Automatic annotation (TrEMBL):
Single GO MF descriptor: DNA binding
Domain IclR-ED: 78-264
Lineage: Bacteria, Pseudomonadati, Pseudomonadota, Gammaproteobacteria, Pasteurellales
Domain of life: Bacteria
Domain HTH iclR-type positions: 15-77
Name the record gives this protein: IclR family transcriptional regulator
Keyword hit for Glycoprotein: no
Family matches, as Pfam families: HTH_IclR, IclR_C
Keyword entries, A-Z: DNA-binding, Transcription, Transcription regulation
GO process annotations (BP): negative regulation of DNA-templated transcription
The keyword DNA-binding is assigned to this record: yes
Length: 268
């Protein structure tokens, strides 16, 4: 009996350590240039000694390494390798990439592709501009906030109507003004999402960064659900030069083509 209790206790400790390690990896994924030990401790809710011990274990397994700044850690390319293997197993990338490359060549601008995961959009594919000089700060694997990103607003607009107030309540501590254009009032967002559904596209009108705009469209699966989104990012000055209508023509064509490949009869 005592052996059984001891065995169960070891399993519990091992499970706890696994969860803590995975939590640290997830936090570090949001700090590509590294995160200080004290900040990791704060964000994970672990004390510094436990955080340091977990980091040492992760480092010995090759998932984490110190940066040049003392006391700061970041993920290694081993994590990238695992991520790339995961992405390569997603058929959606094989389906969408030729159409996204065509969109990239047609517009010459940055093309982004994301999937929906709970309260975030996750960037799973990105093509740099072929003509424009501006390079965005987004990267594959990045978690995008729904309320202030074009692709995020697409996911909210095409979700069930009762999702928005639930999302707003759950994330109210994180919803803040990033620029003077960021929407931070629930009623304003309700109106924004209604407009998106009417027009079939969403805008990040300098809501994350002044001078940078983004236009996104939904991608429908065979069940008519929107679990992917495609967008074009560019400087606001270039958007004004090209014109929103011209970009939307190419963007909607690509979105509808990918939806069609997924077996959807929906279009925008």
């Amino acid at each position: 009996m005592s052996d059984h209790i001891e065995s169960e206790g070891k399993k519990s400790v091992n499970n706890q350590s696994l969860v803590r390690g995975l939590t640290l990896l997830e936090i570090l994924s949001n700090f590509p240039n590294g995160c200080p030990l004290a900040k990791l401790s704060e964000l994970s809710g672990l004390n510094k000694s436990t955080t340091h011990r977990m980091l040492q274990s992760l480092q010995s397994c090759g998932f984490v390494k110190p940066t040049n700044t003392m006391g700061t850690y970041r993920l290694t390319s081993k994590c990238l390798s695992i991520g790339q293997k995961t992405l390569s197993s997603l058929n959606i990338i094989n389906i969408a990439s030729p159409l996204l490359e065509e969109l990239n060549l047609e517009t010459g601008e940055t093309v982004n592709f994301s999937l929906r995961e709970n309260g975030h959009a996750i960037m799973i594919y990105k093509l740099e501009p072929t003509m424009g000089m501006m390079r965005t700060r987004s990267y594959i694997g990045q978690h995008l906030q729904l309320y202030c990103s074009a692709m995020g607003k697409i996911f909210m607009a095409y979700d069930q109507r009762d999702y928005l107030p639930l999302y707003w309540e759950k994330n109210k501590s994180h919803i803040k003004k990033l620029t003077c254009n960021t929407i931070t009032k629930l009623d304003d967002m309700k109106n924004e999402l209604a407009t998106i559904r009417d027009l079939g596209f969403a805008m990040d009108a300098e809501e994350n960064e002044i001078g940078v705009s983004c236009i996104a469209c939904p991608i429908f699966d065979i069940n008519g659900k929107v679990v992917y989104s495609v967008s074009i990012s560019l400087s606001t000055a270039r958007l004004n030069q090209i014109g929103k209508t011209a970009l939307l023509q190419h963007l909607k064509k690509a979105a509808n083509a990918i939806s069609n490949e997924l077996g959807s009869s929906n279009s925008i």
